[in-house]
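The pair is quoted verbatim as follows:
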Amino acid sequence: MRTAVVTLALSLIVTGCLNSIFTKYQDNQYVAPDRKFEQPVLQTLQMFIGEAAAFLFVLARKYNGNASSSSDDTQLPGSGKPQLPRAKSYLLAIPAFCDLLGTTLMNLGLMYSPVSIYQMTRGALIIFVALFSITFLKRTISRVEWFALLLVVTGITIVGLSGKSNAGAEGVTEAHPKVFLGILLILLAQVFTATQFVVEEHIVNRWTVEPLSLVGYEGTFGGLLTFLGMLVGWITFAHGTKGPFDLVNSWNDFISNETIIWSSFAIMCSIGLFNFIGITLTSVLSATARSTIDTCRTLLVWIISLWLGWESFVFLQLVGFCFLVFGTLLFNGAINIDKYLPSWLTADKSTVRIIDVVDEQIERQ
């Protein structure tokens, strides 16, 4: 059992890391002598295709007789809530739309920032999820959790400042205004991702939704919305602009480089495996363990990026990473430092985590 858990944990770290590395690798490919592959919307579409592939795992489990055969209006064992009816599955198009906006902004931000800063900046997600949970889900947050969020904000700020001196793939210092723009886009993306989490939580508080099915539905709806957006954009304003909504140009860029085609296939496979492994692992591990695993994923992305020569080591980035990791682990309850904190800071500490079900079961990319 222990060997299986360790294998799953390592597989989750590797597949999650590959998602970021392959996407940045695509960004570095040239589709013309003076132009790189800059197609954040097309990259969003391939992410949704990878998510929709979750239905393959659902069908495989049903074929093997391991999935529940309950009808739409029955309750899943131990859930206490009815299963989401197929007739209402369209509700999942709302978080899928938030996912579309968030992922596209993150892909755009990744084009302008080193992959390690991209991965670390995504840690700001818990800040917006916490604030939105307080506002819309009427959750409460303890002083220790506020303290943890302050550490995360500090870490994100330091990581952002480190972008000023981060070197690019050819050893040339990147134009830090572009790095800051990339960070701002990634932070804005976390707003939409947090909205997605809150909407998902609202849905799963009312109905039971199998995690893999949730990923599959959102991947399907998101893929359709993304393609429709590209089609409408191409017809109305993007035709001939060679921008991300120019459908013909996006397709030509995609097929112009065989490496881009293979990396797209690799991204879709890694996302599908990442979702399946993550949900399988959650059934035997706690959320705190998942938090630690995800921290290892960020560290691995940074190490690989340094090894590939995409960026140089910046000590300030290491300091920011430490603040970010410590704050995230403290917020998620993976570490306990109550005995080192003043009593007034821990007086209202709760055993209930503010982020409840959704993020424990599902990781998108």
Residues 1-61+83-134+178-307 form one domain.
